[in-house]
Amino acid sequence: MNSSFRPSDAPCPIAVIGNANLDLVTGSVADWPEWGTEVFLDKSDFRIGGSAANTALVLQRLGQTVGLVSATGSDAAGAMITRQFSGPLDRVATRPGPTSISVGVLQTGGERSFFSTNGHLDGLDAAYFSGALEDWPLTGAIALVSGGFALPGLFDEHTAFLERLRARGATIAIDPGWPGEGWSDAAITKAREWVSLADHILLNDKEVLGLSGEKTVHAACRALSPYMRPDATLVVKRGAEGAACYHARDYLVEHAEPLAVIDTVGAGDAFNAGYLGAVAEGASDRAALRRGIDVAGAVISEFPRSSAPLSLQRSQPSCAISSF
Predict the structure, then answer these.
(1) Residue 124 lies in a domain
(2) pLDDT digits 0-9 by tens, 255-296
(3) Domain interval for residue 212
(4) In sequence order, which residues have a C-beta less than 8 Å from that of residue 110 and are 6 or more positions away?
(5) Rounded distance, CA 228 to CA 236, Å?
(6) How do strand 43-49 and strand 243-247 relate by DSSP bridges?
């Protein structure tokens, strides 16, 4: 497929590169139970997970031109993932061994904790992803590298991999997630390298504060701006408070509407889908933030999650802009 045949007014395709696994989400509990006891929970959902797969699935539901670039293990969990991602732009290989699984336990009120196995994810490195993307139409496309800190095989070559994506003409988005060892000096150094190569940096509020060492999101954006490309956009996902972005020396805030939230697992991934889908259509910063918030709100209001087309009840814009 050659991207030069894409109509000029069509949204650009999005390659979502990173982790795919299975999630078992269950709950809710007010407090963690005592070891050796049994607790009966009122809900559970067994579904596709992993930050990249979550984002790609929501982009599918939004009708975007998208392909997931990932892999699974050679088991029933892997087969479930490959059935969902079998489109012309999907590149999901089957590798020997078990598929990574995450168990998410919901706390009453919306928080959650995870127990995860690495499974097949340990073997996904830059050589694998580069090979999978060899025939992908990256020129003019958006390439989101999602969950970089959850892919130990990619970690050391992550910077060089982003450079190769840029050399092939892609617009680069990153959502590295939270480093397993916390924000060590090594993790901060790597993340700054990735930030310097990205056009869209997608972080949540805890991640941007940890990476910058600052106490407020506004100050964190100022602290990270020297590491960013001049035309890059730093997006900060702020949960129930909405989202913010720093771009062209402006700090823009969009607020979220109150929701009755059951399951916040994958909320940031759903935001990424809405935001990047709007960017692919040429939307403004404000409109892209608004789309991300609306999509995330629609997804986290579902239980169990769906793979059906997603229709949005769009909320009214609510924003504030201040200049650095």
Answers:
(1) yes
(2) 998 887 778 889 999 999 999 999 999 999 999 999 999 999
(3) 10-323
(4) 261, 262, 264
(5) 14
(6) unpaired
Q: In this structure, what token pair is assigned to residue 41?
A: 């929970």
Which residue bears the tokens 């700090």?
Answer: 251
Closest to 255 (Cα-Cα) out of 324, 191, 316, 188: 316
Q: Residue 261 corresponds to which tokens in the numbers above?
A: 């939230």
Q: Is residue 4 part of a domain?
A: no
pLDDT tens digits, 148-167: 998 889 999 999 999 999 99
Determine the longest span between alpha carbons in the chain, in angstroms.
61
- Residue entry with tokens 């697992």: 265
112: β partners: 106
Rounded distance, CA 294 to CA 274, Å? 8
What are the tokens at 89?
A: 């732009």
Q: Locate tokens 């805890």: which residue?
A: 206
Phi and psi at 182, nearest 5°, equal: 85, -175
- Name the domain count of the chain: 1
- State the pTM of this model: 0.90
Measured CA to CA, the distance from residue 98 to residue 78 in angstroms comes to: 8
219 belongs to a structural domain: yes
Query: Is residue 114 included in any domain, yes or no?
Result: yes
Cβ contacts of residue 98 below 8 Å, gap of 6+?
73, 75, 77, 117, 119, 120
d(Cα 271, Cα 133) in Å, to the nearest integer? 24
The DSSP-derived string for 5-66 is GS-TTSPPPEEEEE--EEEEEEEEESSPPPTT-----SEEEEEEESHHHHHHHHHHHTT--E
Q: What are the backbone dihedrals phi and psi of residue 55, each rounded to the nearest 5 degrees, phi first?
A: -65, -45
Is residue 156 within 8 A of residue 25, CB to CB? The reply is no
Q: Give the pLDDT confidence score for residue 174 in this predicted structure.
A: 98
Give the pLDDT confidence score for residue 109 in this predicted structure. Answer: 74
How far apart CA 202 and CA 237 sit, in angstroms, is: 7
313: CATH:
3.40.1190.20
